[in-house]
């Protein structure tokens, strides 16, 4: 846990979200500690970071695995986008999807996930 810098990380995350820009978590320096790197990536994802700054190619697969949206997340994101588009065409500003209220902020996040997945896929090609 990075408790001493948690407030600073939170402020950086808030600033990035307010400006609609991506934000990457800092580097993990121990190249031989794969479990520690994985834990650091998971923690960064839980904090809200969009990815991780990497210092070695061997970190790429783990970072992509953790930060890339899962197929089920992408499928739900597509459903959110479609449902909201239909609601807007009907003159509504919100829609229920699977019993959950969906509004513009959810659509923005869904679009961000799709864009992130496309960017990661382009790098894998």
TrEMBL record:
<dbReference type="InterPro" id="IPR040442">
    <property type="entry name" value="Pyrv_kinase-like_dom_sf"/>
</dbReference>
<dbReference type="GO" id="GO:0046872">
    <property type="term" value="F:metal ion binding"/>
</dbReference>
<keyword id="KW-0479">Metal-binding</keyword>
<protein>
    <submittedName>
        <fullName>L-malyl-CoA/beta-methylmalyl-CoA lyase</fullName>
    </submittedName>
</protein>
<dbReference type="InterPro" id="IPR015813">
    <property type="entry name" value="Pyrv/PenolPyrv_kinase-like_dom"/>
</dbReference>
<dbReference type="InterPro" id="IPR040186">
    <property type="entry name" value="Citramalyl-CoA_lyase"/>
</dbReference>
<dbReference type="InterPro" id="IPR005000">
    <property type="entry name" value="Aldolase/citrate-lyase_domain"/>
</dbReference>
<dbReference type="GO" id="GO:0106064">
    <property type="term" value="P:regulation of cobalamin metabolic process"/>
</dbReference>
<keyword id="KW-0456">Lyase</keyword>
<dbReference type="Pfam" id="PF03328">
    <property type="entry name" value="HpcH_HpaI"/>
</dbReference>
<dbReference type="GO" id="GO:0047777">
    <property type="term" value="F:(S)-citramalyl-CoA lyase activity"/>
</dbReference>
<feature type="domain" description="HpcH/HpaI aldolase/citrate lyase">
    <location>
        <begin position="12"/>
        <end position="57"/>
    </location>
</feature>
């Amino acid at each position: 846990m990075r408790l001493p810098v948690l407030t600073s990380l939170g402020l950086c995350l808030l600033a990035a979200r307010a400006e609609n820009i991506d934000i990457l978590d800092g580097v993990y320096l121990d190249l031989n500690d794969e479990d520690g790197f994985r834990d650091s990536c998971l923690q960064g994802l839980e904090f809200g970071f969009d990815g991780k700054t990497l210092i070695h190619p061997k970190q790429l697969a783990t970072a992509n695995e953790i930060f890339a949206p899962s197929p089920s997340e992408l499928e739900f994101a597509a459903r959110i986008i479609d449902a909201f588009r239909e609601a807007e065409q009907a003159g509504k500003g919100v829609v229920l999807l699977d019993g959950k209220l969906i509004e513009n902020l959810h659509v923005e996040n869904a679009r961000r996930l799709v864009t992130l997945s496309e960017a990661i896929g382009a790098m894998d090609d």
